[in-house]
Design goal:
The chain has six helices and four strands; from the N terminus they run H-H-H-E-H-E-E-H-E-H. Strand 2 and strand 3 form a beta hairpin.
Length: 157
């Protein structure tokens, strides 16, 4: 990753509809260079998608909760993967991560209201391999999910 990669990523992150030709004009490089860089960044897994970013709040789900789940650690019951498959079937589950520490999985969920959050939690807990959970509700987003500063730092290294 170099400075041109970082500038290219930043341009497409801030203006995803800019187009390859316009990007080449703004960055002062050939169109083929932009396309080759984008292809390489996507092929290496640095760029993972080109879709629009969606706002759960604008979709009617303004409440964000974080669940810490403890699961049965028996390989014969399917363990983490079985629980992950269950979670993936719940639309309000935005992401789930295997973690270290007191729990086994960390899950970010959204809901229409605090009352609706209980419905989402109940749907999560319908999986019998989950033995315990704890939930916290996000009050405000102080730093939204971001990767551009990391890309800039990687390019500077």
């Amino acid at each position: 990753m170099d400075d041109l990669d970082a500038r290219l990523i930043e341009l497409f992150a801030t203006e995803p509809r800019v187009g390859v030709l316009e990007a080449s004009r703004r960055l002062g490089v050939a169109r083929g260079t932009v396309q080759a860089r984008l292809d390489r960044l996507a092929g290496s897994g640095v760029v993972t998608g080109w879709g629009p970013e969606l706002s759960p709040a604008a979709l009617g789900h303004p409440v964000t909760g974080f669940l810490t789940l403890e699961i049965r650690q028996e390989p014969r019951t399917g363990g983490h993967q079985a629980v992950a498959d269950h979670l993936a079937a719940i639309p309000e589950v935005l992401e789930a991560h295997t973690i270290t520490g007191a729990g086994d999985l960390w899950v970010r969920v959204v809901a229409r209201s605090n009352t609706d959050l209980q419905r989402v939690i109940d749907a999560v807990l319908a999986e019998p391999r989950i033995v315990r959970s704890s939930t916290v509700i996000a009050l405000a987003t102080q730093v939204p999910y971001r990767v551009l500063p990391l890309a800039r730092a990687a390019a500077a290294d």
